[in-house]
Amino acid sequence: MDPIFIAIAFGCGLAVYLINLPPLIGFLAAGFVLNAIGYESNATLDTLANLGVTLLLFSIGLKLDIKTLLKKEVWGTATGHIVFSTLLFTGVLLAVKTIGFSLALELEWRQAMLMGFALSFSSTVFAVKVLEERSDMNTFYGRIAIGVLVMQDLFAVAFLTVSSGKVPSPWALGLLVLLPLLRPLFFRVLERSGHGELQTLFAVFLALVVGVGGFELVGLKGDLGALIIGMMLASHYSASALAKSLFNMKELFLVAFFLSIGLNGMPTMDALWIAAILLLVLPLKSLIYYLMYNRYGLRIRTSLLATFSLSNYSEFGLIVAALAAKQGLLSNDWAIVASIALAVSFMISAPLNAENENIYRRLMNRFQPKESSQLHPDDMPIQLGDARVLIIGMGRIGQGAYMELESSYPGQLLGIDSDKKKINLLQELNINAIEGDASDSDFWDKTNISEQLEYIFLAMPNHAGNLYALEQIRHNHFKGKVAAIICYSEEGAQLRDMGADDIFNIYEEAGSGFARHVIENTSLQLQSA
Q1: Predicted model pTM
Q2: Residue 167 CA neighbour count, 13 Å, CB half
């Protein structure tokens, strides 16, 4: 790849990053800059861009619980939105035709519906990056937003598979049956591959060779194969580590994808005007998301934040438009319209998501809307009951604190942990504990901190999580005492600056406890002698 591509991509990405916008907007701008000075896309860039999208889908699969897709708030929202949004954009494009734009004069209703279908999608690339940067991938709103995007991707991949003109091989069904049977073998090889580059290489092999190669061999879309392979591995204990190890590789390849958008061609004046009209319609597309989510009993905050993450146009929509142009179903100018709408929608959506919490609070304070009378079970307020002591993080330290305090506060302790399996085990041991992620703002938004609560112990192993939880505790005007564990002394200073009442350095205290234990045992042995 030409070094000028890398130089301009870095320069534009840095410029955008310095004004607190996601670098991907700069990469999109870099593509148009390169186009303006005479550069075109090439085979190397296209290959890297395709790898980026493929690894993105594989990474999504690694983090996706298949049960999420089966929830009505996911498949119902995705299906309903595709239908209503496609109809909305079909109507808008036919209205644009009546205005007299030359680009739209030959647009028939079937072509308008095809373009409307492409515009109905939201960006998986953008949403995943925003949720990852905010550490909201595992939040309830993050999970349902990603679930909707995966459903949309499945619709898009199905369309691309059908429209490519390739009839799936009779062996396609055999491959879909064979893969689940091979899953135990994949797991065993993953476990025998260690935790380094060999394991990562095997994951890439599964995604690109078994997933992409295998699916294309039987006439199915390769990207669908990468997504399904990722979903098959999602339940393995190393799935999270694999997603992290692939993160930087995926991000670099996606730079090529964003550059390729701008390199598709320079827009005409008609294309700019139509893209501007599509951007004016974007709030209506977002409103459909909000209404669909709200219909399934989600809280206003959950519906709003999930909607914000989906308030953009999609790279898959661009791919659909580009494929339709390649097959002569649409003019290539429509792919350029889609690319402009995509790029500018990212610029609109980025600050919207950066300020989503503040926007939500301002809207709530101003309009004071009422929540649904029948809230979704996963979105109900968290009641702390009669607890006087809250222990957040039920690892060894949290459990030890619980056992130590049990005699002083019988029946008045409550443990919180994000690991559902751990919570089930603790409950079997008659330990009062519930599932919750205290590093998630949604947890604190749903939690009613009662007046009788006296102590909160922050025992999460992640310092950033404890720091964030303390910030939320102070935001909720908690009047009791807060204690937190740390591993390093500088972490204690941060927590104290934010109002922590007590700090426990687990390494220092473990060392003093170890010494105290040895001396006491030695004294007992001497006395008995």
Answers
A1: 0.72
A2: 1
Among 507, 436, 506, 504, smallest CA distance to 472 is for 436
Q: Which residues of 124-145 are buried (b: 16+ CB within 10 A; e: fewer)?
A: bbbbbbbbbebbbbebbbbbbb
What's the rounded Cα separation, in Å, for the pair 325 and 331?
5
Token pair of 456 as six digits: 């909160």
**399 three-state secondary structure:** helix
The helix-helix angle for 140-163 and 72-99 (nearest 10°) equals 60
| Residue 220 CB-density burial (10 A; 0-12 exposed, 13-18 middle, 19+ buried) | buried
Paired sense of beta strands 447-448 and 455-458, if any:
unpaired
Place of tokens 């319209």: 337
Show the 3-state SS of 138-182. Answer: CCHHHHHHHHHHHHHHHHHHHHHHHHCCCCCCCHHHHHHHHHHHH
Q: What is the pLDDT along the chain (529 residues), one digit of tens a residue?
A: 678 888 998 998 899 888 877 787 788 788 888 888 888 878 888 888 888 888 887 887 887 777 778 888 899 999 999 999 999 999 999 999 888 888 888 788 888 898 999 899 998 878 887 887 776 777 788 888 988 988 887 787 677 666 656 667 778 888 888 888 888 898 888 888 877 788 888 888 988 898 888 888 887 778 778 888 888 888 888 887 788 788 778 888 888 888 887 786 677 788 889 999 999 999 999 999 999 998 888 888 889 999 999 999 987 787 778 777 777 788 878 888 888 888 889 888 888 888 888 888 888 888 888 877 777 777 777 888 888 999 998 988 889 899 989 888 988 999 998 777 788 889 998 899 988 878 777 787 778 777 788 999 998 887 878 888 888 888 888 888 999 988 887 888 888 888 889 888 877 766 666 676 577 666 656 566 5
